[in-house]
## 1
Amino acid sequence: MSAAPRIDLHTHSTASDGTLSPAELVRAAAEAGLDVVAITDHDTTAGWASALDALPAGLSLVRGAELSCRWYGEEPALPLHLLAYLFDPDAPELVAELARVRAAREERGERIVALLRADGVDVSWPEILTGAGGGTVGRPHIAQALIRAGLVTTTTEAFGPDWLGERYRLPKEDIDVFRAIRLVRAAGGVPVFAHPRATRRGRIVPDELIADLAAAGLAGLEADHEDHSPAERAHVRALAGELGLLVTGSSDFHGTHKTVRLGAFTTGPEAYERIVAEARGVTEVASG
Ligand code: AMP
Ligand code: FE
Ligand code: FE
Ligand code: ZN
């Protein structure tokens, strides 16, 4: 490898709310010129095996997930996302939590659909489940149903205040973030806080909580992300420096459910090597 390696540590496949299958995702990552890609579907490891099987020569695969978490230190509790890398996919407590959250997502999705239908919006739960194709169900799948029904034209519009962003936004039963960090570490994995400063997604956690999470075993912060302004990226970087956390940058690619492209943001080799070094070797980085 002559130039600096290109490392993208946050992407989604059809195992959750992305639009490329895990096999298509790793092929697209190689075509985009990446050297390392992480598959981080919401609350599932279901895409790992087919991503691994399809891994193109020269590409390294970091198997991971993005965990739906909540911090209960504020009322109402605040949702946040935790990236988890290289953990044991058979660790029983973690497996149970992921299954519970996936079930909670379905229950919430069904309630959102009921609210929409009560207002005369013609979407159906079976249609949305079909659209999710067996992957972890999320609001992007409901957004697609709103687009098909001709009520909005883009996913962004579907996440606006009149739709899934506020009026039809319901909370789900997520994992307590301290418990999630503990379970990920116990499973040999490395936890990184995804887009911690993304004010455009809603309320954000205070920096004091991030310090507490660092003390509880958090390894890093995702700084370079499209949902962070340049000032927010700089803030996250500075905070990571103060707390001794590593810093990542990633696309959070979702196929056509978002406009961002693979490799739009990347992680430096030092941070990547720290993640690999901190992982306890249960799940290795795979090389194609
Ligand atoms: P959920 O996991 O069901 O709460 O839905 C959140 C997911 O929706 C995120 O993981 C993103 O993939 C997607 N999302 C959130 N906000 C937006 C937005 N403004 N535009 C497009 N996708 C979004
Ligand atoms: Fe998503
Ligand atoms: Fe996220
Ligand atoms: Zn994501």
Note: The CA atoms of residues 220 and 244 lie 8 Å apart.
## 2
Amino acid sequence: MPIAFDAQSRTFHLRNAQVSYLMRVLENGTLGHLYFGGALSAKGSYAHVSSREFLGFDNRLGEPIPLEYPTAGIGDQRVPALVVRQPDGATVLDLRYASHRTFQGKPAIPGLPSTYVQAHEEAETVEILLTDTPANLEVRLYYTIFADRPVVSRSARIRSVHRVPQAVLCAMSASLDLPDADWRLVSLSGAWARERQIVERQLEPGCQSVGSRHGASGHQHNPLLILRRETTTEEHGEAYGLSLVYSGNFLAEAEVDAYGTSRARLGINPDGFAWTLDPGLEFCTPEAILVYSGEGLGSLADAFHALYRDRLARGVWRDAPRPVVINNWEATYYDFDEQKLLAIASSAAELGIELFVLDDGWFGQRDSDNSSLGDWTANLAKLPGGIEGLARQIEALGLRFGIWIEPEMVSQRSRLFAEHADWAVGVPARPRTQGRNQLVLDMSRSDVVQYLFGTLSDLLGRAPISYVKWDMNRTITEPYGGTLPPDRQGEFFHRYMLGLYELYDRLTRAFPQVLFESCAGGGGRFDPGMLAFAPQTWTSDQTDAVERLKIQWGTSLAYPVSSMAAHVSAVPNHQVGRITPLSTRAATAFFGVLGYELDPTALTPDERAQVAEQVAYYKERRELFQRGRFVRLRSPFEGDGNETAWMAVSPDRRRAVAGHYRALNRPNLGPSRLRLRGLDAAASYRVSTWPAGEDAVAAANAGLRGGDELMRIGLLVSPEDPTEARRLGDFTARLFDLEAV
Ligand code: DGJ
């Protein structure tokens, strides 16, 4: 039984073989947090963990009593989870336990994406009702423990039973108190084309946070907070991961108090947020996923990957092999016509590529980024047969057809704007800030959502479209909901997300066979909220292999390989001008959902042969790359960052591919070795290298090797002969194929 309640000590124990989560109704009725970490025995009450005869905060102001859902104004001076402005203007809240119920399974959250179970036995949930009598407020906390994952899911619902409205000013999805502050905070931070780099800092007294305030989870930070011990590695040591299933403004924060304890909180960013709670109505927070690992960051990632791949992504594309795509963006940008596209597609089909994606520029009068967003009808000057005509011709070539859209946007030069200028987000009396020459549609309006559903359904219904790349190229400025009253403008950003999720939900239900890929100027909205609708995301506009190693490594801290679209592009690279070998670009993109984003008609015969071989190589191992266990071996964020290595291992450990990458060649490397992980120590593996070649490294590793040897001694990754080492050059990659015999 994963959730036990000891009535005498009023202690909840959520437990499986991997983790325990303990909380207790304290003497004064508040809900105290006792523990979250490695599994504890089911015996015993653990009530003594909150050792003092706790009498509330009456006598011990500011002392760190761990609380499950802390509120402001009653003596806990740390950051709160909940702030509600009541009709008398006060924000003081003191939540007391009222009741609880446990049940099998996991409830959905109205209007919001969340993880799910397929069978009730996969998880158990406890709903705990806390109330504040003077405020006439009810708070329901939901905790779900999965039967066989080191995961606890949390969310909260806040309901007013007052006669008059009150305002929720802060409602976190989770708050987690830890008894010490000896943690390093790991965040995924960066910028456009440099997303999700690993940034670490030691927790210090006070608050440290990352977040977003511009309407999307963002390029700058990811809604993820990891705490690890100084000594934690990929394989050993403790780590917590808190991840928010949400795509809008978020806050991920850790506070260290005067007593050296720490509190992490994660949820919608309270900055700029205020939600009017009408009598009887409920506000639901997004879901927070809490993972604990006692075996390093690798196990933490394993848990996130499996959960997000198998119980957050949904629909037929959750488990189906993802197609290898050719995308015309970097091949043509806006400069194309039907003939050019068909030449690209037919050339790609000859190489074994499976799906053609028509990117930006196919609609309205769009020849640059300064017009036509919103006018989702084909530009007949470019595509005389319209989308339908092009899609049918692409299908006749043996490829499936996919299309780019950016539904949340409108250009000022567009028919849509001429007809509905009021649909663009903005404050009536102020100029609107342009970003990429475009404005954002007000997704908090139901008429906008309804209109977009109609328009996009029409597009998807008219032509054989198998794939949609849903882009979002600017963030929100002058936030203001056109249909919201002045006192409810603090709801705008969240209502935007609710509208966006509704649209995604309706479209993915109406077109279940379509594979959706989310995108936001590259990886500006790579988050679990999007993955609930679009099982893969365009990882970054950065297609350079060296930069991609870092981006994909960072992303893999929480997100599975099946969620990372990764394309091979032309050189010199369009983002950084770097020239890397074609094999290195492919070896990097293989550890993602593979695609090509170049003009295949411009390739030399030798390059074409290479690409055809790459596509065949990937397809033959597609299941392994897309759904195998991803094991990180050598970090581009450690040391001089010159080397990266990782591997994909099949669930039965009979097959694996390890990738080793070296940015710059260095003199006198010596015969360095790469130790693998996750193999069967007792098995023998046949080792071969890719790209195939007769060099000394390939020869030295070829043959049968024991799993124990591969994990303890490893593979040679630098030639022993200095003359050969000198010839290697920069930006090299090598894959090692392992097959148990
Ligand atoms: C940004 C995306 O990340 C690119 O891949 C491309 O689709 C452009 N937008 C098109 O405008």
Note: The pocket of DGJ is lined by residues 329, 359-360, 404, 471, 473, 519, 521-522, 538, 541 (CB under 6 Å).
## 3
Amino acid sequence: MRILGIETSCDETSAAVVEETGSPERPWLIRSNVVASQTAIHREWGGVVPELASRQHIRDICGVVERALDEAGSTWSDLGAVAVTQGPGLVGSLLVGVAFAKAAAAAAGLPLVAVHHLAGHIESLILHNGELPLPAVVLVVSGGHTSLYLVASPGAYQLLSRTRDDAAGEAYDKVAKLLGLWYPGGPVVDRLARDGNDRAVALPATRLTHADRNAPELKGDLDFSFSGLKTAVLRHVRRHAEGRGADAPLDPREIADLCASFQRVVVTTLVDRAFDAARRFQAKSIGVSGGVSANSRLRADLKMHGELREMPTFVPSLQLSTDNAAMIAAAGLRKFRAGVTAGLDLNADPSLPL
Ligand code: KG4
Ligand code: ZN
């Protein structure tokens, strides 16, 4: 069976066709995965402008879906279902995908499957690597989320911890912005950090010990917090600006050092927390997915610690790390096989829980 996946939760319009293989180890095969990125539009504003995003999704969605079907050699009649991201994300953006998927499912007489965006990011690990050894600890780290899950059986996700404030990707984007770098900041900071000294600037790493009042069901000591780190970077830049005039507070060497130092703290925090959770829950593997899993240091450090501690670690391919519809299609297939479909009264939910 083939499924069409649609993803429009933020600033990527994406459609993909994914096929079931029948193999339990590698359940899905990507037939096409088309992504129309809006970064060039939002860059001018230094971040995603929701109203511009939803308008661009409307312009792109038909062409992106047609191309995904074309590249897969598929027609509407050889699809078995349509899967779409229901949330979380920007409500105007989500609505475009949800409305399109409902119309398409109704017109083609296909079942509709509603997918949680983070279930998609988790599924990207399986798309690329096959089923992970379970139980697994999975860290989803993106522009909107930094959350640790325990996956005890395929498709069952137990939230272990999350960020109390900024997501890791958001911290990357904000730090890049205050350094006058491009949007999205993650890839730029990652690149500049390679030439920097990661011990040049002393930045704080936040370690939480107490439960979050807003999530008392979680113990809290595996939680993340990145806003203090971002403020420390801001203070560092301001201190330098005082002596030199605000136009060029830091020279390229200092920027590289600051990027490397910031990245060391973020990556160390993410990796340490994931391994702590794996130890605590006796996980047989660790997976890291979401936009920030494209980070070169995160990939390298995860691999190194995994080898050192004899823990298998997994990341998606670079293309499957950032937002794409193949992961939504795959998560949709899993849900469809579990017998869960949605009605035509489906609505976008910007804060959908997993
Ligand atoms: O998963 P994603 O495409 O969208 C969300 O669901 O948020 O993640 C986008 C985030 C952005 O914050 C971006 O700066 C970050 O992922 N990102 C990176 C890298 N590539 C993308 N962060 C660090 N290093 C990278 N190489
Ligand atoms: Zn995402």
Note: DSSP finds eleven helices and ten strands in the chain.
## 4
Amino acid sequence: MSVAATPPAIGSFSLPRSLRRRPRFRMAVRSSAVPVDSILTKLKHECATPLPVLRRVADAMAADMRAGLAVDGGSDLKMILSYVDSLPTGNEKGLFYALDLGGTNFRVLRVQLGGKEERVIDTEFEQVSIPQDLMFGTSEELFDFIASRLATFAQKEGGKFHLPPGRKKEIGFTFSFPVRQTSIDSGILIKWTKGFAVSGTAGRDVVACLNDAMERQGLDMRVSALVNDTVGTLAGARYWDDDVMVAVILGTGTNACYIERKDSIPKLQGHVSASGRTIINTEWGAFSNGLPLTVFDREMDAASINPGEQIFEKTISGMYLGEIVRRVLLKMAEDGALFGSSIPEKLSMPFVLRTPDLSAMQQDNSDDLQAVGSVLYDIAGVESNLNARKIVVEVCDTIAKRGGRLAGAGIVGILQKMEEDSKGLIFGKRTVVAMDGGLYERYPQYRRYLKDAVTELLGLEMSKNVVIEHSKDGSGIGAALLAAANSKYEHSF
Ligand code: ADP
Ligand code: MG
């Protein structure tokens, strides 16, 4: 297709009057020094993920997993022990709670489990947003706030929810920040991320912080399990389906966990447990080997708060895909006059274009790509003609395709590693990969690319046994199930 940039056809799409402000322009550009098509061709070439690249990534993922299991610090992948040794069976019974703290909201959940026959008798949940000032306050203030909301929620027990007399309420705590887990119910916060800057928690046991706050509130509750969100997702999905072996989160960030044999974990040395298996939290966002990267990725990384870290996450997850596309479009505007002879200031603002915008643009099936035009105008302040819009969609597709296909290669890397250790464990039978997260859920093209890559790598026959399944919000119930499995009371399962 010819993609020579032409001046924008102003007024080729209609906007509400209120939006018809003139955008502010930053600079005039040199006249099409580099044609837009050559920038696009180069981008597609550098982002390409043909089968040999996918294979290289899958192999490197498997090798890095092994190295991380051998010794702490042995690879980019931390391969963190979850201390989850017993998986939900479906026999769990009783009333349990879950608390999910992972971003700007926290969620509390109550579930009455009825065993194999009745399963989930009832659930209730509540979502509370965390006031901004608490994200910058002290540890006590934050945990007191959480405990007070939890207390209000716990008071409203009734209906189908019953706790036997004399028992403390037990809770599974999903905490999606980097933690060095020290047992199933304790873990040291390494650092806050995602905009949290709470003083006095780093280096402390987050379970103790919550237990202390609950005690200050006079709340008769204890944390029985501290759970990473991927681990919660795996447990939640496994409750319904014994074939679930892997869980992957693709949302703002990304991570994966899977069920590992204890005798395949050399760094475990001497840990004994009844079960021969455990869940390993790979922290695969830190993976970096063999990825096809561009100057746009390298510049985004250099400008980030953690340069050189989380490279896989920066290539495939929701927080970054929009920003990579923005950087490409800015280059096309500056060097190739994609949007005409001047560049709107907004396009120079980091993170102004978000991944949901890419997805919205890719769903536009209209002849004149009107929705693409609106997104570009509303978000980046650019007026675009049809040609420019087509190019923008191609850029979105290139970046989403690379991300989805690399995520698929990562999944195959995990399956491959498991199969190498136990022949027939994965590929000889039905195996389920439980997926969750807003990116996977709401970007259909990305999801399709991910599945295509898995099929290409495994071949049509073998890939029929691998079921990639959306497990929506499984992590909440998963945490409650792990609280049940690690209850300090006698239980009948
Ligand atoms: P989190 O990962 O923060 O726990 P979610 O799993 O809900 O939360 O994922 C939210 C992320 O998913 C957003 O940051 C965004 O990157 C991505 N996302 C949300 N909606 C869409 C969409 N429509 N298309 C593509 N990505 C989306
Ligand atoms: Mg989440």
Note: The chain has two domains: 31-81+240-473, 83-227.
